[in-house]
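Issue 218. Parser rejects a valid record. Input:
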Amino acid sequence: MIFGIMKNCTKNLMILIIALTIPSILKSQENISAVDSTRAKAVKIFLDCNDCDMNYTRQEIPYINYVRDVREAEVFILVTDQDAGSGGEQFTFTFQGQGKFKGLNDTLTYTSSPDQTNTVIREKRTNMLKMGLMRYVAKTPLFNEIEIKHNQELESEEVVDKWNNWVFELSTEPQYESEEANKQLELRNSINISKITPDIKLEFEMDHFFNREKFIENVNTDSATTSTYTTSALMINNLFVKSISDHWSAGLLWDLGSSTRENLNFRSDFLPSIEYDIYPYSEATHRQLRILYSAGVQINNYIDTTVYNKMKETLYGQKLNVAFQLQKKWGSINLLLMGSNYFHDFSKNRIELIGSVRIRIFKGLSIDLNGGVAHINDQLSLNKGDISEAERLLQLRELATKYRVEGGIELTYIFGSIYNNIVNPRFSSSDFHY
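Output the parser choked on:
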């Protein structure tokens, strides 16, 4: 009898608990449905950014919907970058409204400084992206979830540049590798000095390369022999550019250097130049069509006698470069056409075309093409005489050639959910971002 009473009490207690819990569960479900409904009304964006940390971006900006197809997006965002005079990079964010936001466009820029870490740059870029998105988020129910703050310690202060826009960069990269029968030492050093303002551009760049490789045959025997091969190169590039207008600029290219592989003990190229951009330079992050013409003198001193029986010579020639770049929401195009010849013999010339194309064909399908082709008939510094097998295999000497062709293709197709909001880094094999 006592057992029956306890059983009835337990049953009644469970009914009471369930009765008290059900309203809370229903209310929670209503809240979840409300959140889902609000999130469904969030701005749909397509972010076209080659080097953005998308995991970080999704975590820091969770109040929008990321879609994988540009046609599903209400806002298309293109992020481009170019080198800044400070030694950092200028990032341009182009916002283009689509659908209900059509005509609501904007462009913002952020310039990093050379002493900022990747973590700081990532944070600043993401903050700029947040600012650009606010005008769209403000037109959705999610504006209630947004808080805008500022640093209370902000102070007005006049900026004084004690370096007067001069930027210096030094780097060295020694590498050593050793095996029982092979030892290699490689050195790479560089110095970059620049001053860039809207009116002038001054650049000095020096690159030094040294490689020594030893091969040991018949290791651990009395007849062991060692063969040592060394290559080195030094390149000094000097550039001065003066802005004339939003389409024209004039300048001077002066290059100095030496290269054991190219049989050059000393080389100097002195080329006054002029450039015209069909589009204004201010639109360079979106489109360019630059035509650069150079003409001047080249002085060569060779290490060994060339195939033309020369040990030194003075040459006069000209160069023409045409560079085209276009970045749109359907993809991007980069083309560079280069041509040059010597005045004493127009048959001594070179024509080269390098390009890359990225196209979104339709929903989920994209194609990337890159390649280059060159007609080469200006190798005046080639060594006279036969080339050894070691020189050929180790590329110790430049080889005669009439052409060069290179290229590649990448085809990508993605299908499934249009949304791409979720971040889950577990067991990820991708590179870490700092």
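Fixed in the parser; the record now loads. Residues 257-418 form one domain.
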